[in-house]
Amino acid sequence: MRLSAAKALLAVVVTVAGTLTVLTPAHAAPGDNLAVDDVFTSPRTSGFRADRFGMFIHFGLYSAFRGEYRRADGTVCRDAEWIKRNCAIPWPEYEAKAAQFNPTSFDAKAVVGTAKAAGQKYVVITSKHHDGFAMWPTAVNDWSITSRTPFKRDILRELADEARAQGIKLGFYYSIWDWHDPDAQSAANYDAYVGRMKAQLRELVTNYGDVAVLWFDGEWDGQWTTQRGEDLARYVRGLSPNTVVNNRVGHRRVVDGDYGTPEQEIPGGPVDGQLWESCMTINGTWGFAQWDTNFKSVSTLTRNLIGIAASGGNYLLNVGPDDKGAIPATSAERLRGMGSWLAVNGPAVHGAGVPGIVTQPSWGKVSRNANRLHASVYSWPAPNTPLHLTATSWFQITKATVLATGADVPVQPSGDGYDLYPPGNAPDPIASVIALDIVPRTPAERGTGTGLTARFWPNNTFTGTPAVTRRDPTVNYNWGITGSPAPTIPTDNFSARWTGWLEPRYTEPHTFTTISDDTVRLWIDGKPVITNTTPHGPTVDKGTVTLEAGRRYAITLEHTENGGEATMKLLWTSPNTPQQLIPTSQLHP
Ligand code: FHN
Q1: CA distance 284 to 293
Q2: Ranges of CATH 3.20.20.80 domains, the chain
Q3: CB-based burial of residue 407 (10 Å sphere; 0-12 exposed, 13-18 middle, 19+ buried)?
Q4: What is residue 441's DSSP assignment?
Q5: At what angle do helices 155-166 and 108-118 cross, to 10 degrees?
Q6: How confident is the model at residue 18 (pLDDT cuts 50, 70, 90)?
Q7: Of 552, 453, 470, 454, residue with least CA distance to 505
Q8: How far is CA 400 from the centre of its chain?
Q9: Which atom of ligand 1 is nearest to the CA of 263?
Q10: According to CATH, where is 3.90.182.10 located in the chain?
Q11: Mean predicted confidence (pLDDT) in 521-545
């Protein structure tokens, strides 16, 4: 008998040992779709997309070592949050350290205040890192800050209360990889460990109010399978539907979670098919290390943030509180510097994103928020020397001012765009922002579409009469391993065809993006735009076609699934259309 999905999601069994264990919910079934909404336009992700800047906090038992472990032979081993493993500290010794861990200086008000002043809109704290040590009074085991240390406060509660009080969103980092739980070390009893993991996650998303972000990590643990990732994503979404989940719930693929997590690196531009958040250390280590003085400059950190926002990403910048729970002074100083820049120029980052209608210049970065472009100038020109903006679609500039001073900036049409002539000297050596009020190309009226006609066959060759014919408002499917388009369609060996008419709102090149598994073909007006018929795992393909606003174009999209996972998503973008699933309004059956 299969527990209903709702019961399975919430089933909790108190084992004989008295520890909470969560029944592993049933896998997705035929007819189930793991995709919950369009992450690019959903109200659920709108806050995350506008925030652009968050604080990562790596704080745990490892912090008690301050980055150094003196071996019995007197040699010193250096590491931070991996110190237990990389310095081969015996478990009895690592566990004994907990008795000395008493972070009485942890001050949630100060931590949240530091983030807020820096312009960080959310905080993500390590609730449990790879060492398995819980930073909250978990009922699941006694390997926790309240069970093993003299510090009996619930810092997650303190942080949650302060974040709510100061209007900052709260997120929890949770490591799937667990070095401490004996059942997590092999396949033998891994299900039991997963049950305890889910019990802890249930505590985290139900006991601390709204959790904006679940930041999974440690998914590279050999026991973690795609199936387990799918199940975990469904589980946490069932408990906390509005929580944004990162791609490390699975295997960091484009179909996993709600967003990608480039680490210590910044993508060169918008990421196809995915929201993303670059996580980065402020110095060189995630956890506290007293010897790590390699702090990035305020200029580097601020320009990282500007560039990330202009590419439509988020910046999750880390602090590692010390053994007493205090944010290192230099980290706080760097964040204050970023906050000072954002206090004047925040609109270039918060709520801003990919400009679309201009290319990124060599002299700085350009971001867009509705009918305002923000040109963040790194290299301020000499008098009467223009800053050139290359347009990718017609628009008018009605006003240009230096954000910091209000000074007018003369603008001249020039070649493929505009020349800006900012006066005087740069108001800020890090980046001086010129705000451009624009009138973009007028879109055609929003369509009245209702979606595409969708046909599904219980074979992967479109053979015979389709078992299902229906109207699909969008093409946004992640069927995973055990889901499928309909209860009557098997999870493997099926094919799908969407047909109808596409109605663009702008006359300009449109780039179509598909995320597919196993194969995909897309035609617009009978012409092939995307063809990838070599069976593949979750894969992004793109093709560009110039379309005319208000016209309707025949569209045919085909997908086949052989075995394993199945995915089919259809997105578009154009200079005036931010990347998104093709909306229902612009699709006709
Ligand atoms: O192994 C962890 C590491 O300690 C740190 O938590 C980073 C932060 O993204 N994640 C893992 C490495 O990818």
Answers
A1: 8
A2: 47-65+113-142+153-348
A3: middle
A4: P
A5: 40
A6: very low
A7: 552
A8: 33
A9: 9
A10: 452-588
A11: 98
Residues 326 and 109: their CA atoms lie apart, in Å, by 12
Task: Give the CATH H-level superfamily of domain 364-440.
Answer: Golgi alpha-mannosidase II (2.60.40.1180)
How many whole angstroms from 424 Cα to the centroid of ligand 1?
45
Calculate the alpha carbon distances from 168 to 165, 369, 448, 522 in Å. 8, 22, 38, 43
pLDDT at 301 over 60: yes
- What are the start-end ranges of the H helices in 183-241? 190-207, 226-239
What number does CATH give the domain 452-588?
3.90.182.10
Q: CB count, 10 Å around CB of 93?
A: 11
Q: For residue 197, which of 78, 432, 19, 396 has the smallest C-alpha distance?
A: 19
DSSP 8-state code for residue 25? P
Average pLDDT over residues 241-253: 97
State the DSSP string of 477-519: EEEETT--SSTTS-SSSEEEEEEEEE--SSSEEEEEEEEEESE
The CATH-assigned architecture of domain 47-65+113-142+153-348 is Alpha-Beta Barrel (3.20)
Distance CA 125, CA 121 (A): 13
CA 417 / ligand 1 centre spacing (Å): 43
Residue 23 scores a pLDDT above 70: no
Sheet strand arrangement including 417-420 = 387-390, 417-420, 411-414
Pocket of ligand 1 (CB under 6 A): 81-82, 217, 263, 279, 286
Ligand 1 atom nearest to 81, measured from its CA:
4
The pTM assigned to this predicted structure is 0.95
Find the 293 Cα to ligand 1 centroid distance in Å.
19
The DSSP letter of residue 60 is S
